[in-house]
Amino acid sequence: MSFDAAQFKRIERAGYNRIGPRYLAASGTRRELNTALIAAARLAPGQRVLDLASGPGLLAREAQGAVGEDGLAIASDISEGQLACCPDLVRVAADGEALPFAGGSFGRVLCGLGLMFFPDDAAALREMHRVLRPDGLLALSVWGSACEVPLVETALACMRRLLPPPKVMRPSIFRFGDADELARRIASAEFSGIDIQPCRFTTRFTDAGAYWQGFLDLAGGAAESLSRLPAEKQQALAVAVAADLAPYAVAGGFELTSTVLVATARPV
């Protein structure tokens, strides 16, 4: 099955447009990840910050608070529906592989859980490098390996078990889960001083239904594809995921601990 990057982007954009406000509400389960990435970025008053794959602007809002009135944080995403959730911020709808900003425009570039969604990750990293000042800093996060991210992999395993292979191939969201591979990809875009640290966080759900809805509220393109299934198939998935969640059962529901890699690097 060949990969159609344009079709993949259309589905991702449609999916994130569809779940806009729901994504904002559900993203509170990842608050620790925003805190870790903001800390790694070492923001200071007066800086100009670009937040790529910003979604509803949670990172951009924290960045704006850190850089103050003399600084600027821009939320940028391919999904206008996501950006509509942060009307109080400066927003630019754009493809991260071809940014509409001049070179050297920003002192910091952030990308929280976004790099793995760019079909051409090399182009996205080159763009991040291009728009950074020579003394700037890139701070990004990616999912760890599949076995370290039950928050996502549990739902994907259920889908693989019950559904035929997708008609549009998707890049693996875990493809940068190995720290050495992530460092190699960042270095290939002419970054140096690369530092990668794991960040573990725990998410709790009262039952399998709450877990499945939480997945749908954050899944973007996958949620878009699932929405096109017959209602009975969607319901079957919601019920069947309980079997995959069994290893994470605790008193009062389920508890899943996952790993994200937080990386920083400077342009060469």
Please give a quick description of this structure.
The chain has 268 residues and is α/β, with parallel strands linked by helices. Helix content is 41%, strand content 25%. Helix 1 (5-18) packs across helix 10 (221-227).
Question: How are the secondary structure elements laid out?
Answer:
Elements: H1 5-18, H2 20-26, H3 31-41, E1 48-52, H4 58-67, E2 72-77, H5 80-83, E3 90-93, E4 106-112, H6 121-131, E5 132-143, H7 150-162, H8 179-188, E6 191-205, H9 208-216, H10 221-227, H11 231-245, E7 249-250, E8 253-267
Parallel strand pairs: 1-2, 1-4, 2-3, 4-5
Antiparallel strand pairs: 5-8, 6-8, 7-8
Helix pairs in contact: 1-10, 7-11, 9-11
How would you describe this protein?
- The chain has helices at 5-18, 20-26, 31-41, 58-67, 80-83, 121-131, 150-162, 179-188, 208-216, 221-227, 231-245, and strands at residues 48-52, 72-77, 90-93, 106-112, 132-143, 191-205, 249-250, 253-267.
- It is of the alpha/beta class and 268 residues long.
- A hairpin with a 2-residue loop joins strand 7 (249-250) and strand 8.
- It contains eleven helices and eight strands.
- The chain has a domain at 5-147 and 171-204 and 258-267: Vaccinia Virus protein VP39 (Rossmann fold, 3-Layer(aba) Sandwich).
- It starts with a helix and ends with a strand.
- It is globular.
- Strands 1, 2, 3, 4, 5, 6, 7 and 8 form an eight-stranded mixed sheet that branches.
CATH T-level topology of the domain at 5-147 and 171-204 and 258-267: Rossmann fold
Distance between the termini: 37 Å
Mean pLDDT across all residues, rounded? 93
Outline, from the CA principal axes?
globular
User: What is the CATH level 1 assignment of the domain at 5-147 and 171-204 and 258-267?
Assistant: Alpha Beta
User: Mind describing the biggest β-sheet?
Assistant: 8 strands, mixed
Using the 3D structure, state the CATH architecture of the domain at 5-147 and 171-204 and 258-267: 3-Layer(aba) Sandwich
The helix-strand sequence is: HHHEHEHEEHEHHEHHHEE
CATH superfamily of the domain at 5-147 and 171-204 and 258-267: Vaccinia Virus protein VP39
Per DSSP, the total helix count is 11
